[in-house]
Specification:
Elements (H helix, E strand, L loop, with lengths): L1 H13 L19 H16 L4 E3 L9 E6 L2 E13 L3 E7 L7 E7 L1 E7 L5 E7 H14 L4 H4 L2 H15 L2
Antiparallel strand pairs: 1-2, 2-3, 3-6, 4-5, 6-7
Helix pairs in contact: 1-2
Length: 171
């Protein structure tokens, strides 16, 4: 149990937090190579140790378009992901973020999406997702473009989140 807590603390320490300038930057295209494969392994390890369901490279300070996520009981890696289709239907639900001290806020997202990108072998991948899985990918892809949930919520919730973050930073 102590080892799990320690592993989680180490993982969370590697994740950039709100206010870090890298989280506002547009990520660069990524090329599949051994370095990217090692990065993906590291990201998956951090995601699991931090009890997350997704992680984008900018969250660990790497401005490359790569995300990892856990759906259908499996880990997935998607390089240069793009949303190529979205439903007209949207829903609003609470979302947390490892880069926002795990605070949650309501975010409106498309209910169904189609995402295309590459896997670690350079193969073209297509995901057609709905519900929570669609929400996870939209959240992680947002990070690649310098957006966080705090940018996607209401002005009122943003003020509340900022107040809570200030409280958490006070000694």
């Amino acid at each position: 149990m102590a080892n799990e807590k320690e592993a989680k603390a180490v993982a969370l320490a590697q994740i950039r937090q709100f206010g870090d300038p890298v989280l506002k930057e547009e990520s660069n295209q990524a090329r599949v190579d051994d370095g990217l494969r090692q990065l993906a392994e590291r990201m998956i390890r951090i995601m699991h140790q931090a009890d997350g369901v997704g992680l984008a490279a900018p969250q660990i300070g790497i401005l490359r378009k790569i995300i990892v996520f856990h759906v259908d009981g499996r880990d997935h890696v998607l390089i240069n992901p793009q949303i190529t289709w979205s439903s007209e239907e949207k829903s609003t639900q609470a979302e947390g973020c490892l880069s926002l001290a795990n605070l949650a806020c309501d975010v409106e997202r498309w209910e169904r999406i189609k995402v295309e990108g590459e896997d670690l072998d350079g193969n073209h991948k297509v995901y057609e997702l709905e519900g929570l899985e669609a929400r996870i990918l939209q959240h992680e892809i947002d990070h690649l473009h310098g957006f966080m949930v705090i940018n996607r919520t209401t002005r009122e919730q943003r003020r509340e989140l900022m107040a809570r973050l200030r409280e958490m930073q006070m000694p």
